[in-house]
Specification:
alpha/beta; globular; binds dihydroflavine-adenine dinucleotide; eight-stranded parallel barrel; 12 helices
């Protein structure tokens, strides 16, 4: 049943018609619980609240299924406006981006051009830009774009999905680059991705431990208390300083645990999606945790 629901929501998350329609609906189905704001002003208020609790943020201007250059340019301008805001308000916040939003499916050079404009401004303000990893079709193009950007910038990194069979190889290749380790949110074929939770978790721990003893900063992005517990033990036993890594969780998930980790002295960063393009993001969150379905029922029946 859990697997059926997961596949159902992942399928919905990639439905272009629903994604496009949802932009006009406003937040529905309980999405506001996981989306930190509709615009720069509202997400800034939420970031300030998190910062006051000792939590850093990474902000994501929601948007997928972009096939027109004008939309990518609009997204780039919005990201740049967010960078200006982070700088003006001195927020403890970096930025996460999705390359498909910046034109990866339209023209790779156009996408690189957009990223360079973003990175130039981010570098001026000393802000890190993280490239989220999308589905496997975009995996190699994302790595290719990253490698091109790394020739000129050191304030950019990406995400490694531990469900990918090639994850360790790529992690080794990007040894000196700041990376976020996640389990992986898309439905991928067994040819390219581990399918069982045991394999995915085992690989996550292997990659995270390798990174923690390596030279570059690592974001450990999971809500899994077992993995977090084991890694806390690992860093203590190996004397790994807490400024070498951070824990990351999504906005609206395990909030108490986020505060607790920050209070314990760990660097904690919350991923804050904002904007009107919430549908695909929200459906992937439902796929991961069908318990969140009760939010949909509340939204539908409490009218
Ligand atoms: P998982 O969902 O496997 O849960 C493990 C266990 O933790 C559960 O069985 C339960 O016991 C407990 N648990 C989990 N959530 C809970 C909750 N809300 N309350 C109580 N207990 C809970 N993916 C991707 O493909 N590309 C990307 O770029 C990113 N980026 C990203 C950034 C950040 C900051 C995060 C946290 C995640 C991502 N992801 C991602 C998503 C990631 O790949 C993955 O799908 C989700 O994090 C879900 O997996 P978990 O590791 O959280 O544990």
């Amino acid at each position: 049943m859990q697997k059926l629901l997961r596949n159902f929501f992942i399928r919905l998350s990639t439905n272009k018609f629903l994604n496009q329609s949802a932009r006009k609906w406003g937040f529905r189905l309980g999405a506001e619980r996981f989306v930190a704001g509709t615009d720069i002003e509202s997400v800034t208020r939420t970031i300030k609240k998190m910062n006051q609790q000792g939590i850093s943020c990474t902000v994501d201007n929601l948007g997928e299924f972009v096939f027109h250059k004008e939309e990518s340019i609009q997204a780039k301008n919005q990201i740049i406006a967010m960078l200006n805001k982070i700088n003006e308000e001195n927020l403890d916040c970096h930025v996460s981006v999705k390359l498909t939003q910046l034109g990866l499916d339209i023209d790779q050079d156009f996408c690189i051009g957009n990223m360079k404009e973003i990175l130039d401004i981010a570098a001026r303000y000393d802000i890190f830009i993280n490239i989220d990893m999308e589905d496997y079709i975009h995996f190699q193009p994302t790595i290719d774009v990253l490698k091109t950007l790394l020739k000129d910038y050191n304030n950019v990194g990406t995400v490694i999905q531990s469900y990918l069979r090639c994850a360790e190889e790529v992690t080794d290749e990007l040894r000196d680059v700041r990376l976020r380790i996640v389990k992986g949110a898309y439905k991928e074929s067994p040819d390219v991705a581990f399918q069982s939770k045991e394999d995915i978790d085992r690989n996550f721990l292997k990659l995270a431990k390798k990174r923690l003893t390596g030279p570059a900063f690592t974001s450990i992005a999971t809500h899994d208390h077992r993995i977090i517990g084991e890694l806390k033990k690992f860093v203590a036993e190996n004397g790994i300083p807490t400024d070498r890594f951070e824990f990351q969780m999504l906005y609206g998930f395990r909030q108490e645990m986020q505060y607790d980790l920050a209070k314990e002295g760990y660097r904690m960063t919350t991923y804050m999606p904002f904007g009107h393009d919430w549908f695909g993001y929200y459906m992937r969150r439902l796929a991961e945790r069908p318990q969140n379905l009760n939010l949909i029922f509340k939204d539908v029946f409490n009218r």
